[in-house]
Amino acid sequence: MPWFWEGLKSGVRTLRPRAPRLPAGVTPGRPATTAVPAGASLDPELCPVGALAPQDGAIAVDFDHCIHCMRCRPPASPVQWQDDYRWALAAAPPLPPRFQRSIHVRILDAGDCGGCLSELRQLFGPVYSLHRYGIYVSPTPRDADVLLVVGPVTVGMRVALEETYAAMPDPKRVVAVGVCALNGGLFADSFAVVGGASRVVPVDVTVPGCPPPPLAILHALELVTGSSREAREVGDS
Amino acid sequence: MIMVPLFFALTLAAAAAGLSRAPRWAAPAGVAQVLALLALAGTVLTHPGHQWLLWPLAGWGILRLTFTALGGFLLVVTALVFLAVHLFAPGYLARYGDRYDLRPLRATLALLLGSIALILLAGDVVTFLVAWELMSVLSYIAVVFDHEAPENPRAAYAMLGAGELGFLMVVAAWLPLVLAAHSIAFSTIAAAAPARLPTGVRWAVFGLSLVGFGVKAGLFPTMSWLPRAHPAAPAHASAVLSGAILNLGLYGIILTNVQLLPAPSPAAGAIVLGLGAATAFLGILYAATETHIKRLLAHSSIENMGLITIGIGAAMTFDRMGLPVLGLLAWIAALYQLLNHSVYKTLLFLGAGAIDQASGELNMDHLGGLGRRLRWTSAFLLAGTMAIAAIPPFNGFASEWLLLQSLLRSVAMANPALEVAFALAGATVALAAGLAATAFIRFYGMTFLGRHRSDHAARAREVTVSQRAAMGFLAALALMLGIVPTYVASGLARVAGSLAQSRDVQAFIPTFFRPATLPPALASAFYPLGAALGQRVLPAPGVVFMHPSTRLHAGVVFAMSPTYLTVAIAVALALAFALAQLLGRGRVRRGHSWMGGARTVDAGLTYTATGMARPIWVIFRAVLSPGQTVDREEVVAEHFRVSVRREDGARYVVDRLIVDPAIRGARTLAHLFARMHRGSVNAYVGYAFIALLAALLLVRIT
Amino acid sequence: MMNGGRDAPKAPGTPGSGPILRVGAPLADLPDTVRQLVGQDHPPFIGLVVEHTSEPPRHHLHYVWMRPAARWLVVDVSVDGAAVPSITPIVFAADWAEREAEDLFGVTFAGHPQLGDFVLHDEDWAESVAPMRRRPERPTHGGGRDPYEPPRIVKAPGQFVMPVGPVFAGAQESVRFLLETVGEEIMHAHVRLFYKYRGLEKLMEGQLATRALLVAERVSGTQALAHGLAFAQAVEALASVVAPTRARAIRTVLAEWERLRSHVGTLAGIVESTGLSVPANLLAAVEERLLQLSGRYLGHRYLFGLVALGGLTRDPGDDALHALARAGAQAVASVQDICRRLALDNSFLDRLEAVGILAPERAATLGVVGPVGRASQIRADVRLWHPYAAYREHPAAPVLESEGDGYARFRVFLREAAAAMDLIQRLVGTLPPGPIHAFVPVVPGVGLSAVEAPSGALAYWVRVGSRGVIDRCHIMTPAFLNWHGLPDTVRDFAFQDFPIIASTFGLSVADADR
């Protein structure tokens, strides 16, 4: 019982989405397509994974490969960074409208380093408090509408991913969270890694990043439900 | 009246058919014998009090058969048990055919039925005791039949030994009665003995008969033979032992302490009640943790005997406390429970036989998944499981509910000590009902559901048609007895009326369907609620159990209608089914079990019966196995545990706390006496001298 | 192509910790040598490095121990296909290291009773793969034995195996627990790791060190800095380069910051497992606060991309580090406040005290390290025994408990979090000016380096070949050592105690699976 009062006394720890400015550090930011003077060359040291490429007088960013190594962060480089978090991309239509108010998600660690999983833990923790959006972690795949896959799919986890997907009822969506789940990331070449989640199950929404911050994953979930809640509440900060 | 000689003639014929080399006559002869018994029982019930004189015994009266309502009722119960057993036996016994000569067993069962009938018809002490001995020896033969397993003859011998000990106590209990009435006839004893015996002797008769007959009924503290002996017999014989013979022990207790010599005080009823509660608790506790199906059923029989005994104790107390209506209610509850137990326990033992026959396995840890292989058996046993777990609409619910209600009415006695005793017994009944539900859900789930945990379980084959018919008959009976309990209770009231001091069954079954006989207050209060629902369809006076309060001015103490409940359950099920059909049509997807992401499902990764019972084991460890588990580890390469062997040397709690110390005490005493025999002439002369002195003193004092 | 220098191995350097004592042993004498060297005082076993040469086909085994305030101990043997006598009966901590070597290299160990299915699961891989051997072709999976049958040692009527995982209900890492039981209490626990085996050591082979550094950071995302630092130090050591003073000081700040954040996360996990949701959520909010501070002042929430070979990729600046320390101190104060209240809460203490006891001798035998070890009186701490970065000038305050139960581990995590914050404040007050990066030339050879990661001693063995790329990289992680201690600890406790005990170990699966 004393903890109940402790909880009340501690006040609201949850991120206020309507606040004009989000706290710094909620998102690490990421490189943006940056216009550069014609003829300027790109230092290959700037991007060890080759996600930056000159294109039509600008430096284009290939987010599917950017691993947030931070080497191109200003002021050391000409590349501009932006602090947004709408990183997700949908390749499939959202779930039917009846899912807008509540979805149950299942998290599958297919070989994650722990970063994306930690961000997911934060997302379902007190600060981002997803329950207020009607988003719950499902204790069983039988009730799950959305599968969040983190990490490159290892040989050992391939069956588990197939099984989890098969155990979920239709309609369902799969979200690949993080670069590794998109295409294997840095681990794609390993003999023990199958590759991105799309090698095993159909992927509907992708969130790049290494790891994508909690708000970027929330953005992906909003693309899944088709709700514009995030746009309404968080606003342009 | 022709039925008496006809039945005993058919008994001999059935025994002869059993002994003949042509086994095809055995079953028809057995069925004919049972049908004759049913007809006989009908005669008995319609002619209560009729006596059938046999021959005189010089100076002590005439050997006779007497027709009583209780005897007739038990004859019906016995006949139902044997009917199912005879249907089941031919298919079941085939598995023993290549190992044993089946003829003695067939003859034994026929004669056993004859001896049971003789016990229930006996109208005098000698006929009763002779028939009783016959029954004891015949049941010993039935248990020892499968004698290749070394533990079976030992178990049969334990049963015989305990039974003979009980027999001696019964003889000792009845001797003062016979001497006081100077007659062996029960009718004379009942009329004369109570007035002529001092209270001390009446207590002695009560105590000796309770323990003596309690041995045969499997009551605390003399039931440790039962969980060994009942599983040892072939399954259909186990059904007879549990479904018919245990009842005889209770019959003996009622005969002695209600009909011959009413208990000396209400405390006697409370003692019976307490004995019943202890029996029920230990019975169900062991049933809830046992993994061998037949042992589980045997422990459950102990529990049910305890429940019936609680009802008998409550009825005796109510009668002595001047509450005849509550007495009648408790008698009905007890007899109802007895009838139900005989039906579902026979069903379950026959089911155990079917499981054994189909899979060769009775340990639930190695069974599982039989539901898909034995569709009929599993359906019938589901009925038996629900009945014994007291789940409506099956029969166990009605009787246990009546029993609980009669205990809760103890407030009417206005006696704090008795009220506490009844409250504790009521709590025991409630606990037993809860544990029984876990025990039998575990039995059904671990045997029929899930995956098979052994190869022989995977290869199980369904049993023969007549075996299924036997189980189906009993399952239908269990359902019928549960759906229309007011009819059953009204019928039982005739039997109970012969034991209780009231026949006013309408006191708790209001005649809602016959407005003319209904108190107007009840009519105006309950007709708007639909109490007359079904009036046109159902012939009974009413389908609601209801007891208006006696002490409080207004209100109903309890009300329940399993009949209406059945209708409600049926409607709810139909609705659910319809909804599922409507909403889920075409969207059913079949997949395999979710195994946490692993694909291979190994039966070794699923709960066993032992594991499912473990929480109960942990809670009641002090009773079941106080500090008697030992883990032995084998370690290689200094650090690697390669095996952990767990041994549980737990002894049955009654053996541990009562039987073993008693045997040790007897041995010590024997050693003491043995030490007196030192062979010294002087010592013997000394003993003789002391004995002479003591005898003289005794004579001088009296 | 391996050069002939291997037969007389050059002592690999470690930064600031003096040389390594290397003892070569003939194959048959290995157990005796090991018994003489470590049989008395049981120093913490860190790992077994196996290197394979194809011509001639030989396995070179290097057993690594850390010793208090002394040189690292490495015992070398070389074998050509014959069975290696197992040292597990002497050093039980080497149990899993030998199993891993057998699975990945096909080295057989005579006298080890549990070889087989370990890193490469039987249902996915054929027995003969040995993927870490030098072969031109890429190892392939398939051809395994299905279905997998879990090992069973319990023999009791009604015994069964309770499987948990590999997929869990919440945001948990994939691992499988097979709990042998007769119901209620765990009689024996098997931990089946390596569902997430990513083959990182093989992946690094042939990569430039700059690229492999990125992989190292992602071995265990929540301890990215420790991994990056350990890898960078190993490469620096073999090139005999020492990072500039300022870089070393900031590396220390970052390492302690990572320890602080990781420990707060572990504390939140422990409290959550006990079912007290209010304090669990309060602690989880602090963890997110620390992540936001990392993002704000250090650029990345998990400190990816900060460590460079030879120093740091960038300088956060004195102002940012001061602000970080100030905000961090507040966060730590609130953690201490919550934990003070927890220490008075009986329902919390009941679930941790005398639960999951790891007695000191047993802890030494099992070979646990880090906070788990320090809760059982195992003093091993790389920062104190083999100081690196700025730990020589700014030694970490030693934390030690002796009960070895869940609550002792809880207290160690709490005290270490506070100690980390103290050290950060001391360091940011005395930050030296100067460059943050030194050039590291590519030099062939072997580097061995260790750091005290949040969960314990983390060591990298890096061999750079003559072509300038990584030839062999072996990652010896604290999680691999500590998982080995878990099964013993949960024995005879009830199922519901299992997640609580596991949470007090603060284990990462990715760190062990690699």
On the 0 to 100 scale, the average pLDDT of chain C is 89
Structural class based on helices, strands and sheet pairing of chain A: alpha/beta
What is the CA-atom radius of gyration of chain A, in angstroms? 19 Å
Query: How many independent structural domains of chain C?
Result: 2
CATH architecture of the domain at 89-234 in chain A: 3-Layer(aba) Sandwich
Helix vs. strand class of chain C:
alpha+beta
State the CATH architecture of the largest domain in chain C. Answer: Orthogonal Bundle
How do the SSEs of chain A run, as a string of H and E? Answer: HEEEEEEEHEEEHEHEEHH
Task: Quickly count the helices of chain C.
Answer: 17
Largest sheet of chain A: 6 strands, mixed
CATH top level of the domain at 89-234 in chain A is Alpha Beta
- Form type of chain A: globular
Distance between the termini of chain A: 39 Å
Indicate the proportion of strand residues of chain A.
15-25%
User: How large, in whole angstroms, is the Cα Rg of chain C?
Assistant: 22 Å
What global shape of chain C is seen? Answer: globular
CATH class of the largest domain in chain C equals Mainly Alpha
CATH topology of the largest domain in chain C: Cytochrome-c3 Hydrogenase, chain B
Number of helices of chain A: 6
The CATH topology of the domain at 89-234 in chain A:
Rossmann fold
- Which chain pair has the greatest contact? A-C, 69 and 72 residues
